[in-house]
Amino acid sequence: MALRTSAQFLAGLRDSREVYYRGQRVPSVVDHPELGIAARHAAIDYEMAENPKFRELAVHRDGSEEFSAYYRVPRDAQDLLSRSKLIEAGTTEGATLVLLIKEIGTDALFALKRVLGRSADAQGVQRVEAFYRHCRDKDLAMAVAQTDVKGDRSKRPSEQSDPDMYVRVVGKRADGIIVSGAKIHTSCTPYVDEVIVLPSRSMAPGDEPWSLAFAIPTATPGLRLYASDYLHGTDDPYTRPISTNHKMVETLTVFENVFVPWERVFYVDRPDLAGATALTFVEFHRFTAVSYKLPLLDAMVGAGIVIAKANGIDRAGHVRDKLTWLGGYVETVRGLTELAALRCIMEKGLSYPDDVTTNMAKCTFAREFHQAIETVQDLAGGLLVTGPGGTDWNSPEIRPVLEKYLPGAWPADRRMAVMNLISDLTTRSYGGYQAVLAVHAEGAIEAEKMAMFRAYDPSRSVALALRLAGLESHAPGK
Amino acid sequence: MALRTSAQFLAGLRDSREVYYRGQRVPSVVDHPELGIAARHAAIDYEMAENPKFRELAVHRDGSEEFSAYYRVPRDAQDLLSRSKLIEAGTTEGATLVLLIKEIGTDALFALKRVLGRSADAQGVQRVEAFYRHCRDKDLAMAVAQTDVKGDRSKRPSEQSDPDMYVRVVGKRADGIIVSGAKIHTSCTPYVDEVIVLPSRSMAPGDEPWSLAFAIPTATPGLRLYASDYLHGTDDPYTRPISTNHKMVETLTVFENVFVPWERVFYVDRPDLAGATALTFVEFHRFTAVSYKLPLLDAMVGAGIVIAKANGIDRAGHVRDKLTWLGGYVETVRGLTELAALRCIMEKGLSYPDDVTTNMAKCTFAREFHQAIETVQDLAGGLLVTGPGGTDWNSPEIRPVLEKYLPGAWPADRRMAVMNLISDLTTRSYGGYQAVLAVHAEGAIEAEKMAMFRAYDPSRSVALALRLAGLESHAPGK
Amino acid sequence: MALRTSAQFLAGLRDSREVYYRGQRVPSVVDHPELGIAARHAAIDYEMAENPKFRELAVHRDGSEEFSAYYRVPRDAQDLLSRSKLIEAGTTEGATLVLLIKEIGTDALFALKRVLGRSADAQGVQRVEAFYRHCRDKDLAMAVAQTDVKGDRSKRPSEQSDPDMYVRVVGKRADGIIVSGAKIHTSCTPYVDEVIVLPSRSMAPGDEPWSLAFAIPTATPGLRLYASDYLHGTDDPYTRPISTNHKMVETLTVFENVFVPWERVFYVDRPDLAGATALTFVEFHRFTAVSYKLPLLDAMVGAGIVIAKANGIDRAGHVRDKLTWLGGYVETVRGLTELAALRCIMEKGLSYPDDVTTNMAKCTFAREFHQAIETVQDLAGGLLVTGPGGTDWNSPEIRPVLEKYLPGAWPADRRMAVMNLISDLTTRSYGGYQAVLAVHAEGAIEAEKMAMFRAYDPSRSVALALRLAGLESHAPGK
Amino acid sequence: MALRTSAQFLAGLRDSREVYYRGQRVPSVVDHPELGIAARHAAIDYEMAENPKFRELAVHRDGSEEFSAYYRVPRDAQDLLSRSKLIEAGTTEGATLVLLIKEIGTDALFALKRVLGRSADAQGVQRVEAFYRHCRDKDLAMAVAQTDVKGDRSKRPSEQSDPDMYVRVVGKRADGIIVSGAKIHTSCTPYVDEVIVLPSRSMAPGDEPWSLAFAIPTATPGLRLYASDYLHGTDDPYTRPISTNHKMVETLTVFENVFVPWERVFYVDRPDLAGATALTFVEFHRFTAVSYKLPLLDAMVGAGIVIAKANGIDRAGHVRDKLTWLGGYVETVRGLTELAALRCIMEKGLSYPDDVTTNMAKCTFAREFHQAIETVQDLAGGLLVTGPGGTDWNSPEIRPVLEKYLPGAWPADRRMAVMNLISDLTTRSYGGYQAVLAVHAEGAIEAEKMAMFRAYDPSRSVALALRLAGLESHAPGK
Lengths: 478, 478, 478, 478
Description:
4 copies of one chain form a homotetramer. Chain A is α+β, with helices and mostly antiparallel strands. Chain A has 16 helices and 14 strands. In chain A, strands 2-1-10-11-7-6 form a 6-stranded mixed beta sheet, with no helix packed on it. A 4-stranded mixed beta sheet of chain A has the order 5-8-9-12, covered by helices on one side. A two-stranded antiparallel ribbon of chain A has the order 3-4.
């Protein structure tokens, strides 16, 4: 099948899906003033495939076969680098906001392939493969619903007073299963074609009904999407140059007796697979994450450099020191991301980014992002939150006053354009959105540290320490 | 004269003042949907004086004399502590947002008293004293316009291509002077009675026309206030429990041939006084600042503790570690603020908070605030930016879904109330406003570090180092 | 009784005490080439009392009564400030190394008074009081043996496979008890008159034999002191200007069937008192600690300032930035120490430094000390570890070469004197000693954080957060 | 020519070289009790080439040609990786102390090749090439004398009051030049065959006599080496398991009218080449540095892991957190080092490690090393500085006491072995040596930050920021 155009993608969203926004059922996502922006932001994915500038990167060609490059199964380091570059390019076109309608879905599919392949579950492997071909060949957009609402964090799914705190099987039929429960933080759900559902944690015997993975079309009866209005638009594009036109929407994703046919059930009643799925997905997804964070970081360091010039302070020692730190921060994340691909691990012909290196990239990103915010705000100045709005700027009476009084080393129009970019990136809702994502998306910082601890192989360093202490004979394995 | 009521204060704002908001001249600040909120927030100052709970703190009584305690000239450490407590209490009533309609004005007046007193300028002292009595006895609200728009930061006022980059004298008459130019970041200007104008930097010979300090009523002809709409309201108080009802407004403050009578000119043509005024004002004002930051910090640490409980994670080791850090951060700022008062310096019967200690408090606050934001966001979770809005919560169809799926260790209503508080404090516009103020208000971090460097007396440590190195004879002064 | 002279103190150390150093029994501590240095360092305490310059600070006079001011029971903030100043002055005379022969002992005695007073143990109170008078009136030097050797850290004393991992009662007689076991890290033991023994942790029922506090003379039979040679001297005072003449010695303190008469047993078989004693002692002792850290910090910042001048780099922006940070670090510790005294808590006529404030001072000190080391090393340069030694400097052939080639902005002799001071303070054994003490002495950083967590009262911040979230009715206590 | 054995290397050091140690001329470096240790440490380089385990890595074979692999001119990323691995392996054999007798010399030679190649100085290129062949074919050891003693840091060489503050030409003859002056911090000089001399900074017109590069045998008349005794040995290998047997020595390297024949003068009177040489050398040398830091970092993290086990605290949450941080720190440096090779830049058939990436590795290493020290000390405990020495341990009377009282989760002998390793690494002279090297070697932190600032290419980030701000037309180059 051919690749879809962005128009075809948007047309495909006009179906019976059950989406709620600000208390109201949304008749058409595409035509909705807020959700439509998010859908068109996502559609950049399809536009890139049509754009000669990105075609090489965005479209995989293999003989006569042609499909979105997100669906390319990585076979070597180069494939992983290409995937990373594609994600980075998409996010750059998205003005620092990831598109995420194929990235995360393929992360999930590659993870399911690996986990089911390892467990030698032939039926599961076949179902994942069939679903993968379906999505790839129809050029579909996917969301992944992973994080459960969780209820009491100290209890396992089967111990919760309300069993719906984790998505679960409530019935089985000859043709499929019935599921209920809810997921939270599901990105892009209202404007994708398919929703892949994965467990969010390890499970133990007794947790069978909660141990399942499946996929359903967004328009499946009983699937209800309660969209967050966090990035709800404003009337002022002047002060929000990014977020006026770019938006991502998360949902509370409720399953009320949703029917899933067997061919869409990748596994069920498998506590042994749940933890592996959750971890493997996150390993892939963190590589996606560090790839899509790069344009945001580039924008931060670039905005820092530019506003220092616009303010006329770029030669001060402390400013150079801050810019050097910012640049080093960004390039460390970029370098470790590249290295995670170069150090890829091969398993059954597939290549996976190196886990420790990916986690180092992600932790470096996450732990210093708020310092980057502070640094850029420091370079910009108080005008970030005391400056004029768009109606002021557009007023023929007021603009001359602003033009006279707000220049620095650059004239007021250019200086304020950069100031507003930084305000959007760091002080308004979009800035807060990115800041919280830095701490929580793709696993919170504590989860990443645990992943590091698990993945880190201490044998070299322990052996050296024991040798230096004269305790070679006590080295592990001896 | 008697203290004014809040109604009297608001009534006093109905005059000919020239205020612009979103491109429009504002006919009545008090009746304006946005500026009115800010004015009523400021009016909390007057409400406290009427409230028996705060009367002792907010009203100074001396025999039959009775005036707002902000106007009390501090005579000892206890007076400074009381002033600090009053500012803290006002900001607590303002829900973490400082009131600032008497704090900053008295900071300016005390600084002018000190600077002119030291320079033995009897006429200037007398004019400041007369203006001080005028404001105190009529219980007036004041703004301070200090930061000039500055233009090219590498040049002095007299070197700027446009001489209006710093406010200046453009003419002198028998009855007063004419001033032009503009100030930026002026807080509360649209809803105060008087505007005090101070230089923002040191001046040198040649900068005479820019070396002046004066005060004028807000409704003075030629004074034009262009208000920032940065904290422009939203339609959703559910997700903005603080900022829906509390607001502060900054202006670009333009002087176009404004007449100032001589009795309101504290000095003019005095480059020798400009730097001292700027520094002395900021020294006082930083003590105000660290006092008014405390409720914001208390709210942050309190919200961190409460959301950890609401999420059911308060017993985790890393959570206790983070809360301990947060508590230590807040209490260090509070402790140093208290100590700055206890270590006060007496000069001509007036007490001044210790400069080094105040700067340590301010630097500690400023340097770690973004880490506090990160920490509280970390404890709260992704719901900060993916959760429901007020229309969802108020929908009879949707609320039951939210109540079912969004509880943690606390039920959904209480958990979401805390989540929204944290979102308002850290991820939305109000959070960004406070974050930028942390870095830039009352002097940027670099300015505070320079103030520390200047104020720090190294003689003890240098003498000890020389003695330990056997170089006693090289100690300074020998 | 009269105060003792330093000669009397040293003479008093010539007794049957059983001290081992480098594998050998030490016949006379005072005459030992290494331990004698430590004893004479400690004797500075007695010299100060004889020195008119320090007499006011070091000697308490009350009518005809006269005793060492360390023994003064603090009755108000001023007494605590005086105690802090005395400790600071003693450590300054000790060239950044605390004297500690009365500081820690009185910390222990004040703690025992408080704990036994609270528990209404009249006999215990009387025994402590009697022992206190004995020490005070004879002007004795004391060590405190608290930290047990601990064995398996995951087990309580009664659960250890070897019961001697914590000091314990092994027998009781009509006239006293017999104790065995060992303490570690005991400072100054070889050259004090009395050793006070306290529990190092909380105990539970079953831990009775390990739950005791007592005091014995150093020369008690069965008490064996194995002194660490960590600070063993070198042959080069040129490169160790401090540590050549100043030394503190810790022991492994072994009790082998040591008899303790009942009047020296403050309590025994009291698991309920053990934890309180350990905590209360540490609370007092941390105030001592932050007082005695100040000269070390002053020496660091002073050395940083001086070497920057000697190297000719003191005007560089980054150097000023580092010096400002150093100064702010030191003064924050000093300020919080002072504040801990000013905020003292009164209980039964005694004043105690505020616990939260003391812990903030201690944590601030501990968490940033290694950064201070790095900063001072950064300012000094590589000569710290590549420079000449004393034999080079004293060689008539080589010194001219060094004088020609090693000047900076200061001549070589003065520059190298400061360089060597910094090397002693930060790169050689003495530097390492202070660095480890920063992390571990008076409780490790993690213990201090736990103490902070326990001592911090969150009620104000929690109440504010709940109020701002509209949850006043859920405030604690309602 | 054949590779030399370590015995041949040591034999080669017995010549007329003029070395001073502790005020005395050293008749034979190899036989000297201190310098001999350093020479034998360096000889590990030659032992590795003889050892089958390292032969592949340490010896380059090209047909019949065979030479030390340090001399292999890197032609691709793999050559750089091999070089890095060789340096890492050598330092591991050196027990965390770099060998450095070929690493730094080849760094200098590769840099001279590049700089002279670029400047098309055919004679210079030929002289470097000839000297390179001489060293390679005779398997020589080399030191590099770069850092001048500098005098007044604010002045250029020609402005110094004493012209000898930078090494300079004092005379020219038909057969060569005469040089005088002094270098400092020169590593390994007493026990190498050749000394390469490079400028340490950029020069300007007027600085001609100071703008030169050359090489001479160590035994050249007039070359005087004043060796630092910083790592002077102790009598206790028990507490210094590394530094008793491994040592590196720096010299003050004085040139008194030293004759250099023309074929050994790579250039002279070339201010235009001085800065490029200094920078290019440091670029190479920083790649060497990050390679040789890895065993030190491995030892730190390994010692941290092992002591946590030995103390029985490895399951505590805060301990896992600290170990995770340590591991991430080490692996980030390692990863960026590897990436610097993988991203190598090709120029005229030679490959150079990527400069920005190398600097990121070096800065990451340098900025966090003191935190790593603190962390490992934190995990180890106070015994680092209060524990027994070797004479205690070897005493038949005392060892049983130590064995009884000093176990943790591991018996006392193994626990103390690790404790002593950590003490050597972090608290004693060797620890201080490594700490100062972290801050100053291969350029101080500030120099590295400047190198980062210069090397960082901001064009991508600036272009993105301008585009997001709607200022595409203002991008650089437009």
